[in-house]
Design a protein that fits this description.
The protein is mainly alpha-helical and 462 residues long. It contains 21 helices and no strands.
């Protein structure tokens, strides 16, 4: 047995297994933009798993989420029974399978020293890339607040450079994806500045300065893109995430004082309708901007309640199997029409049920919805547990590098948790459905929370 483990061929397979995460990232366009005639490319995943088995490594590392993910994948297979057209569901199925495979590959990669640093950097850079694409390729909502329209007219557009991208990205989807990433850049930038003396002892000053500049520029870029999307769900999510960051970074004695202030502030704002009054005041100052009319219009909320009512009926009709991934957007007009059909007029493509919990049930049935909820709750539990664990004094004496990594893990976990909660708030009235292209960001975030939780539990600060 020992001879087999030390052969050059076995070392070769082990080396490939160590870079499965990188192979998956390189192949990501194949999975995220898969067409029905390319379905054979899904064989890449079992081939990579076979390589892990040959290398005598765990194909799927043991995590607190394995049982939940097994149920999620099982329901995805069950949903194939219900889908009316595999060509409609395949893009979401391939993207979800890729994302789960990437999650396990990144968790396995976390066993390597300093791997968390690499994954965090990739997560942040992925957010920057998404912000740049959103800045250039979003189909901006010009019908909402007209004061933004002159800004949109000045922005370069990918549709002019790439004719195939004429439709552009949906602004709400861009905003929802960036909510996952923005809090991490906010807290990381603040940490790099406020703890400069402590951090500088482990980083060269030039690298430290570069990271500060990168953090500030990234925070500004992502914030501007989120602001320009006019997604009120994202605005609310970002606000919740910032409150969460402040709560965890404040000294323990001030946390509950801050929480009381926030609660009192929210009560006062709601009681006196402060936000609508503020935008009405701005609308009076800038009458051509439509701020007072569109900033907090309830028209979209009324539309969402109609969609939610149809989604609940569909969930009752397809309670176990779901309707099939990506099919609600089409079947809702056939089975549960929102309004009377108009001849020669194509109904509006809803995209999703404007609620991620409902959408997961429509895609994968109630068992799939339970798995999705369990996934979210487990991630929050792991993140909170990690933060509380890292705040306690260590039972053993840690060297300077271990102290540095311990604090780094805590700061990063706070940022990840804030992004997770912020997106969950966004997802109550909007959605990035399972298998959607920007959704791979969620799985990288999930892998980081899981990896840091497992490392802190084992007290491995490397």
């Amino acid at each position: 047995m020992q001879k087999i483990l030390t052969t050059p061929l076995n070392r070769f397979w082990k080396k490939i297994d160590q870079f499965v995460w990188l192979i998956l990232l390189i192949c990501s366009p194949l999975f995220l933009f898969m067409q029905s005639h390319q379905s054979w490319l899904l064989l890449i995943l079992p081939i990579l798993w076979i390589i892990s088995a040959i290398a005598r490594e765990r194909v799927f590392p043991i995590t607190p989420l394995n049982g939940i993910l097994l149920l999620l994948v099982f329901q995805m297979l069950i949903s194939l029974y219900a889908t009316y057209d595999i060509n409609v569901s395949l893009p979401k199925i391939s993207s979800l399978l890729f994302s789960i495979a990437l999650f396990f590959a990144l968790v396995k990669f976390s066993y390597v020293k300093k791997s968390i640093l690499v994954t965090v950097l990739f997560f942040g850079v992925a957010g920057i890339g998404m912000a740049i694409l959103g800045f250039l390729g979003t189909s901006w909502a010009t019908a909402k607040i007209s004061a933004f329209n002159p800004i949109y007219a000045l922005l370069p557009s990918l549709s002019r450079l790439l004719p195939g991208l004429s439709a552009g990205f949906h602004p709400n989807e861009v905003a929802g994806a960036l909510v996952w990433v923005l809090p991490l850049w906010v807290i990381a930038s603040g940490w790099l500045i406020l703890r400069a003396k402590f951090i500088h002892s482990n980083l060269k000053w030039l690298l430290h300065l570069f990271l500060i500049l990168l953090g500030l520029v990234s925070t500004l870029l992502i914030s501007v893109v989120v602001f320009l999307t006019q997604s009120r769900s994202a605005y609310l999510g970002v606000l919740f995430s910032l409150v969460l960051i402040i709560f965890f970074v404040l000294p323990r004695i001030w946390r509950w004082v801050f929480l009381v202030i926030v609660i009192v502030g929210v009560v006062l704002v709601v009681s006196f309708d402060a936000v609508p009054i503020f935008f009405s005041w701005l609308g009076n100052i800038f009458p051509a901007s439509n701020l007072s009319i569109n900033a907090f219009s309830f028209d979209t909320l009324n539309g969402r309640t109609k969609i939610w009512s149809r989604a609940l009926i569909a969930l009752q009709d397809f309670s176990f199997t779901g309707m099939g991934m990506n099919t609600f957007r089409y079947l809702v007009h056939q089975l549960y029409p929102l309004s009377p059909a108009i001849p020669n007029v194509v109904p509006k493509d809803l995209g999703h049920a404007h609620n991620e919990i409902l959408q997961s049930g429509l895609d994968l049935g109630i068992p799939g919805m339970i798995a999705f909820l369990a996934l979210n709750l487990s991630a929050v539990w792991m993140a909170v547990t990690t933060i509380l664990q890292l705040q306690k004094r260590s039972r053993r004496t840690l060297n300077h590098q271990e102290l540095w990594m311990r604090e780094f893990f805590r700061i990063i976990t706070i940022g990840l948790l804030a992004g997770f909660i912020g997106h969950f708030i966004y997802a109550l009235t909007d959605a990035i459905s399972l298998g959607a292209k920007p959704g791979f960001i969620f799985w990288i975030l999930l892998s980081l929370i899981t990896s840091i939780y497992m490392k802190s539990k084992r007290r491995e600060f490397n």
